[in-house]
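Hey team,

Filing this mostly as a record. A colleague (T.K.) asked me to run one chain through the structure pipeline before their review meeting, and I want the input and output archived in the tracker in case anyone asks later how it was produced. No errors, nothing strange. Just documentation.

Input sequence:
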Amino acid sequence: MDGPTIVSSTPAVEPFEAPTRYIASFWRRLFAFVVDVILISIPGFVLGYLFYSFFSGDPDWGSLIGFAITIPYFAVLGSSIGHGQTLAQRWTGIETVDVNGNHLSLGRSFLRYTVLLVPVFFGSILPSLLA
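Output structure:
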């Protein structure tokens, strides 16, 4: 006499599939960058208007303040904190990820955008430094 047989079935586990990602086109990324620059220029324009006399005396301060506004915008929103998307990247469906598909850490995002934007900053103040 055999004892009761317990039959248990577990549902088949389907393999995990990573979301399909593609590299955004150059024009889509350029468009998002231009829109971000326009968005960032709004607070710069307001500050420049309010403190015109200060910035007209030494325009390098304007570049420095613009740089101080721009780096945190891109670094924070481009990191895992902002889900790898600036405002314009959200609107255009672009997401910044590493080779494994993960969002960048804040430090790595900061380094990435510093490397991108430091030449722009020094390009704007270099003529006054050489004069």
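Quick notes for T.K.: Residues 26-130 form one domain. The chain has a mean pLDDT of 85.
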